[in-house]
Structure formats: C-alpha cells, structure tokens
Amino acid sequence: MHKGLLFDLDGVIVDTARYHYLAWKELAQELGIPFTREDNERLKGVSRNRSFEIILEIGNRQMEEAQKEYYCTRKNGIYLEYLQTLSEKDILPGVQEFLEAARAKGYRTALGSASKNAVFILEKLKLSESFDAVIDGNKVSKAKPDPEVFLNGAAALGLAGCDCIVFEDAAAGIKAAHAGGMRAVGIGKPEILSEADYVIRGFEKITIEEIEQEIM
Ligand code: G6P
Ligand code: MG
Q1: Is 39 a catalytic residue?
Q2: Whose CA is nearest to atom 11 of ligand 1?
Q3: In which region does residue 34 sit, left (phi positive, over 0), alpha (psi from -120 to 50) or beta (all else)?
Q4: Which of 28, 42, 60, 78 is 20 to 30 A removed from 205 (C-alpha atoms)?
C-alpha cells in the first residue's frame, strides 16, 4: 500500500510549462537559435541553467558563464511577467479534487520540482496548504533524472521511496521516480511518457482509487 504522493509542479499542477516555453522561445529568437515545441520537451523537468545550455547546444553556440547567467536571469524575468496574473483558476482541472480526496484517505503529499519559483507559484494558486512538504530547485543540487528531489520529498514525509507514487509530465521525471524506487504516473501523451507505469491525460475525473488499482 502506497502512503505518499509526490507531485511535479510545472505541467502537472499548473500549466506553467507553456510559459517556460514562451520565455525561452523569446530569448532563442533574439539569439537567432531555432527552438521548437519539440525541442522544448527536452527542457521539461530540467533546471533553468541546464535548459539554457541545451538551447545553446541546439544553436551550436558557446557562451561565457557570466553571459549565461545574464540570459537565465532575463528568462526568469520574462517568465515571472507571465505569472503575474496566475491564480487558483490556473490550477489544472481535477487537481484540487484529487489532492483533497487523497489527503482525506490518509495519503501524505509533497511537491518535487526543479523550479526555484515553486513556493511563489503555490502561493499564487493558494495551494500551499495542500502539501505536507515542498522540495524545490532551491533545495536540490542534482536535476531529474537524478532521483534526489523525489527521495528528499519522500524523506520529508517520513517515507521510503517505495511507499510513494510520483506524478510527472516529463520523461526525465519518470526516470527520476524509477531511479528512486517509486512508481510513476505520467501526465500527458503516452508516446512521450512510454516509461511511466500508467499514463493519464490529466486529473479530470481521475480518482485515487483508479491510480491505486493501476499502480499496485
Ligand atoms: C521545472 C520545469 C522546467 C524549468 C525548471 C526550473 O522543472 O519543468 O521547464 O526549467 O522547473 O524552473 P525555474 O522556475 O526555476 O526557472
Ligand atoms: Mg513538469
């Protein structure tokens, strides 16, 4: 019986993944680097700095560290502009209901995200109270597919990895969950999340009972 649920943030709880894409796209365009939605899949679950390095790799470009830092800061500025109007209305369909039902059943919940903006986003969504622990990009040193963020999440709940189920929209996050000995539910397209133990399009009409049954 699983006791803990670990949630990625961007693309699972809220559709900020498209704002990350739009912000990176704007910078890539400025730098004359072609950057498609398909390329963007490689950035999901990946830290801000590493994301920019991947974009530079796509453009076959090199840059000094200080300049990389400058662009990452600018990207975050553009991204935060998009988040200005973020509110409870932006929580993805079914997420709140799913969290409430799972917690009522005794599950403990943690957020496991590479984002350094996670606490700010949860506050904007008024979801801070829905998680017993938050592990974000400020608390980890190794990015997904390393399991650090989820192992820390499980530990913060007082649980072992094998007691937890991870919910992820990124292929790197599914790998991280498995590396931590956890079962993984993919949120999105089965083609992209082929390694997940079970794939759902989103939380709408999804019950914790269905997940328990499919994941056991
Ligand atoms: C998440 C997203 C990535 C993003 C990373 C860092 O994992 O999926 O696309 O790059 O967080 O986010 P941040 O808000 O710190 O730039
Ligand atoms: Mg994500």
Answers
A1: no
A2: 115
A3: beta
A4: 42
ipTM higher than the 0.90 cut: yes
Judged by its nearest atom, the ligand closest to the C-alpha of residue 46 is 1
- 183, 31 contact by CB (below 8 A): no
Q: How far is CA 130 from the centre of its chain?
A: 16
Q: Name the CA radius of gyration of the chain, rounded.
A: 17
pLDDT of residue 200 exceeding 90, the answer is yes
Distance 49 CA to ligand 1 centre (A): 9
User: Is residue 15 flagged as an active site residue?
Assistant: no
Instruction: Kindly indicate the confidence band of residue 45, based on its pLDDT and cuts at 50, 70 and 90.
Output: confident
pTM of the model: 0.94
For residue 152, report the distance from its CA to the centre of ligand 2, in Å: 17
- Comparing CA positions, the residue from 81, 68, 152, 171 lying closest to residue 117 is 81
Task: Report, as an integer, the average pLDDT of 49-63.
Answer: 96
Q: Is 16 in the pocket of ligand 1 (CB under 6 A)?
A: no
Burial tier of 6 (Cβ tally within 10 Å: 0-12, 13-18, 19+): buried
Residue nearest to atom 9 of ligand 1 (CA): 44
